[in-house]
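Thread amino acids onto this structure.
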């Protein structure tokens, strides 16, 4: 039986919307042959992520403007619901805060190296950890389906703006503090402000 080589979807977050990429470029970065990359390109074109141009490469499609606002609203709803669920359970809150502090440590290291891609991936991990703590697998799966768009929005918002990373870290520190204190209403307000501030050039 032939072995299927899977291309991780997270590699899409490396490329900004509007950029051109090639099979060879991605294959070299992932350390694999062009065949699975070509298959991934075709699949991503079908999903609307790429636009393929024979012999020229692939154009990375931007997250559409109307989708950005929808993503913000979905994130606020899902994360706020999860925090409301853990607010009454000291053990769950403690476990979540510990997980968030670990991710924050990784983000600080990425910021120190000005690794914007790594920072964007950890940013998505931070918010996914909040949703996962709510214990609703269906909501976690839906949130995960937004992860590619989230990482691309974050990478675009922070591209060549390393000075903004400190602000994101401050916001994440405050969000973790609000969770620890079971301040679910304040968390919702702070979360929406954080997302809109981070993506202010992309949102209306």
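Threaded sequence (204 positions):
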């Amino acid at each position: 039986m032939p072995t299927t080589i899977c291309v991780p979807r997270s590699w899409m977050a490396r490329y900004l919307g509007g950029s051109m990429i090639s099979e060879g470029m991605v294959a070299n970065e992932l350390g694999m042959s062009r065949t699975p990359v070509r298959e991934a390109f075709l699949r991503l074109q079908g999903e609307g992520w790429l636009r393929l141009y024979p012999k020229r490469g692939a154009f990375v499609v931007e997250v559409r403007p109307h989708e950005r606002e929808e993503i913000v609203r979905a994130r606020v709803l899902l994360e706020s619901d999860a925090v409301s669920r853990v607010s009454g359970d000291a053990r769950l809150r403690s476990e979540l805060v510990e997980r968030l502090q670990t991710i924050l440590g990784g983000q600080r290291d990425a910021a120190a190296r000005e690794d914007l891609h790594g920072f964007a991936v950890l940013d998505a991990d931070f918010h996914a950890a909040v949703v996962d703590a709510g214990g609703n697998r269906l909501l976690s799966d839906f949130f995960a389906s937004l992860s590619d768009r989230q990482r691309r929005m974050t990478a675009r918002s922070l591209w060549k703006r390393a000075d903004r990373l400190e602000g994101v870290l401050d916001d994440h520190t405050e969000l973790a503090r609000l969770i620890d204190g079971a301040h679910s209403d304040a968390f919702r307000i702070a979360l929406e402000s954080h997302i809109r501030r981070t993506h202010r050039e992309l949102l209306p």
